[in-house]
Amino acid sequence: MRLIFSVFVIFYSYITVAEEIVLTELQAQNLGIQLGHLVALESVPLLTAPAKITIPPKNDYIVSTLQAGLLQEIKVSIGDKVKKGQVLATINSPQLLELQQQYLNALNALQLAKADFNRDKKLLSEGIITERRWKTTQAQHKILLSQVNQSKQLLVLSGFSKAAMQQLITHNRLNSQLTVIAPISGVILERFVHSGAPINALEPLFRLANIEQLWLDISIPQQRMQRLQLGDKVVLENSEYTADIFFLSQQVNADNQTVLARAKLEAKTDSLRIGQIIRVQINQTHHKNTFSVPNRAVASFDNKSHIFIKTATGFKIQVVKVLGKSKGQTNISTDLPAKTMIATKGAVALKAHFLGLGGDE
């Protein structure tokens, strides 16, 4: 038993130290060996996963109004594309009348204060009034000017247009109709109200989104996260759309043990819908040392993967790292240069020959 074990150790040591298989061209042909080159890869598929189409928060708006009233008319429907400043709805608001009256009162008070301001300024220069009275007049003018600006700003925030503002100043004509306008150009995603409904201040009316830029929220099994990197490319299933990963969460979803990876779509995507679930493939970009070879070019033994490099006298064995397989090809990582000549068919026969087992594929 000891003799047999010693012979086995000597034989095993020989086959692991040997680096080259000496073969003539005729012998290689008889083994069915075919040759080809290492093909460099620009990217390597890592995994596929489900993804949800989402909107960047900065492009998602809830449209409301600062004033309560009665919703008179809705001018848009769900799915409509609207432009910034477009009227979405009109509201009959008694509170709007109060704001307009406050603005007119503040304007009238400011005009009187301005007359006092100009008069006291002249009297001060003539030494008729004291410095104290002049400062009091100045302060009163500033207070009333601030009230006018505040009243005007409230009207503007409530949706009061410039034309309506000018009409109010020129004719002192109050208007209870409030217009709800689009704060951005985008698409109406949701409507929360209907015509004839009473509306409270700050109550949501519409959800409006700019869909020129979309995100992919991708659910990645937490055990696969080690290989993901920022900048990895995402390809949508059955489409030409691509995206780049710009965020990898540090939190694991306790319910399904997945981690959120977020990618930004690179182009406008009219065929995608908000909330849509799709399958995506994540590819990792490699600049060097990554190649694609036929599955038949790789042989496994001694718990490692190997390819066989063509030499002048036969084939040299090279250990490689397998990154994955797809459509009859194996993606590998090795320090060999591109275009290196290897055995693309017959790796199993070369393995058997190397191990002294004989046989063929």
Total number of β-strand segments?
23
What is the CA-CA span between the terminal residues? 34 Å
Number of domains: 3
Instruction: Summarize the biggest pleated sheet.
Output: 7 strands, antiparallel
CATH architecture of the largest domain: Beta Barrel
The shape, in one word, is elongated
SSE succession: HEHEEEEEEEHHHEEEEEEEEEEEEEEEH
Strand content: 35-45%
In DSSP terms (H or I, runs of 4 or more residues), the helix count works out at 6
CATH class of the largest domain: Mainly Beta
Mean pLDDT: 86
Folded structure, characterized:
It is a single chain. With 361 residues, the chain is of the alpha+beta class. It has 3 domains: 20-42 and 288-355, conserved putative lor/sdh protein from methanococcus maripaludis s2 fold (Beta Barrel), CATH 2.40.420.20; 46-58 and 212-285, Beta Barrel (Elongation Factor Tu (Ef-tu), domain 3), CATH 2.40.30.170; 94-174. The protein is 28% helix and 37% strand. It has helices spanning 2-17, 25-30, 94-125, 131-157, 162-171, 347-355, and strands spanning 20-22, 34-37, 39-40, 43-54, 60-63, 69-74, 81-82, 87-92, 177-181, 186-191, 198-199, 206-209, 215-221, 233-236, 242-252, 258-265, 277-285, 290-294, 299-301, 304-310, 314-326, 329-333, 341-345. Strands 1, 3, 18, 19, 20, 21 and 22 form a 7-stranded antiparallel β-sheet that branches. The protein has a 6-stranded antiparallel barrel with strand order 4-13-16-15-14-17. Strand 21 (314-326) and strand 22 form a beta hairpin. The longest helix is centred in the N-terminal third of the chain and has 32 residues, at 94-125. The chain is elongated and about 120 Å long. The two termini are 34 Å apart.
